[in-house]
């Protein structure tokens, strides 16, 4: 599991744009404030984009970090011991799961 950002290059109108990525599907999910999930693995290789809420995240190797709105997580721990999370505060955690097509390269820059 890595938190970071997508590599962005100059695009139209002085915007920055990522490279195209092949996706299998996209879903949006919401967990009520105070929610948590015990140890589990990611079901598939995916990007997790936090839309709202703040999340305390822990990996099995002891790495801890906080996800804030706008953060992107590259979830690749589909086997092994996984991770767990707990919401911080009363706001719901709204996130978008971008399931990557098999073999998709992601220009991801870990923080």
Q: Which keywords apply here?
A:
mainly beta, Cupin 2 conserved barrel domain-containing protein, 111 residues, Jelly Rolls, six-stranded antiparallel beta sheet, RmlC_Cupin_sf, RmlC-like_jellyroll
Question: How would you characterize the largest beta sheet?
Answer: 6 strands, antiparallel
Global outline: globular
- Whole-number mean pLDDT: 92
Indicate the CATH class: Mainly Beta
Task: Tell me the helix content.
Answer: under 10%
Main-sheet strand order equals 4-11-6-9-1-12
Number of strands: 12
Into how many domains do the coordinates divide? 1
The CATH homologous superfamily is termed Jelly Rolls
Strand content: over 45%
CATH-defined topology: Jelly Rolls
H/E element string?
EEEEEEEEEEEE
Count of DSSP-assigned helices: 0
* Rg, nearest Å: 14 Å
- Structural class, by secondary structure, is mainly beta
Distance between the termini: 11 Å
Describe the structure.
The chain has no helices and twelve strands. By secondary structure, it is mostly beta strands. The chain has a single domain, classed as Jelly Rolls (Sandwich), CATH 2.60.120.10. The chain has a six-stranded antiparallel beta sheet with strand order 4-11-6-9-1-12, with no helix packed on it. It has a four-stranded antiparallel beta sheet with strand order 5-10-7-8, with no helix packed on it. Strand 7 and strand 8 form a beta hairpin. It is globular, with a radius of gyration of 14 Å. The mean pLDDT is 92. It comes from Mycolicibacterium murale. This is Cupin 2 conserved barrel domain-containing protein. InterPro entries: RmlC-like_jellyroll, RmlC_Cupin_sf.
